[in-house]
Amino acid sequence: MRSSSLLLLSFLMGVRGVQGGSDFRVCAFNLQHFGDSKSKKTDVMETLTKIITRCDVCLLQEVRDSKGKALPELLIQLNSIDSVHKYDAVASERLGRSESYQEQYVFVYRTDTVTVSGQYQYPDIRPGDVDAFSREPFVVRFKAPRTTIKEFVLIPQHTTPTNTTKELDALYDVLQDVRKMWKTENVILLGDFNADCGYLAKKNRKNVRLITEKSLVWLIEDKTDTTVRSSTSCAYDRIVVHGETFARAIVPLSAKPFNFQSEYELTEDQALEVSDHYPVEVLLKVDRSREFNGATSLALTGTNQKTSQLKFFSWFVLSHLVLQVLAR
């Protein structure tokens, strides 16, 4: 009986040590024409909120919210469906070469695990290559104390299919600009790169510095399918990590598309109502020792304080019961 109780106490201590130790997930999702019309579709919004609430930070692309109503509605629904985390967003201005077609880059993030520490709209005025992008990157720097990397930069890009090779190569210039400006090596480039199936010819890859530079690791492989349609198999959506230090902070083999059609048991037509792309994601390693210290600390505020105190109290009661058994 005593040995069984000791095992139970060890188990409780183990649970206590990893409490709140869920993975830290970074995602990128092309929402395919997300605006006022799509935000009014109940089934679509339900699926979108399920997908986005899986992520600590989620890059949204093809946000065409000209009326300024769709994104606020999305945030309302995210915060109503998830009682554990709170969500906010930082968005670019509307970007595009024509008034008739413009998009925004939007980063939705959990306010309890991430803070925005900087943002930068790339000016796209590089001498000799002015206006290289149809939608120039909106770069955001995040602090994430739970992760081993602590702080990182995300460079988003939704390339124009007819200009994929040039835009991907120009992303290398953006990377160098950001490294110099913020003096950081911890950078991920991500988004719908259109980096497959005719848009990025194999013969042109040798001319793309984002591919040839050895300090960059493409985490989503060429053979991966990031499209919803069963008639296509293309690795359009990518995640590229810069630098050895950041690469070591990635959970091995965690980069992949999230097949929401299969996960939520949707038909292909139902899935296509949401998007014709799957989101791609990667996990960052979490600082478990910090989470243990944070979980045992009562120096918290607001809702987090109440939640942590309740968890601590429950653990304390269970541990106390075990100790009573041991004392018999």
Describe the structure.
With 328 residues, the chain is of the alpha+beta class. The chain has one domain (24-284): Endonuclease/exonuclease/phosphatase (Deoxyribonuclease I, Chain A). The protein has helices spanning 2-18, 36-39, 42-52, 70-81, 164-182, 209-212, 244-248, 260-263, 268-274, 288-296, 302-327; strands at residues 24-34, 57-63, 87-91, 95-98, 101-110, 115-121, 138-144, 150-156, 187-192, 216-218, 237-242, 256-257, 280-284. The strands form two sheets. Strands 1, 2, 3, 4, 5, 12 and 13 form a seven-stranded mixed beta sheet that branches. α5 (164-182) links the parallel β8 and β9. α1 runs antiparallel to α11 (302-327) and α3 crosses α4 (70-81). It starts with a helix and ends with a helix. Mean pLDDT is 86; it is low at 1-21 and 296-328.
The gist of it:
This is Deoxyribonuclease-1-like 1. With 328 residues, this protein is α+β, with helices and mostly antiparallel strands.
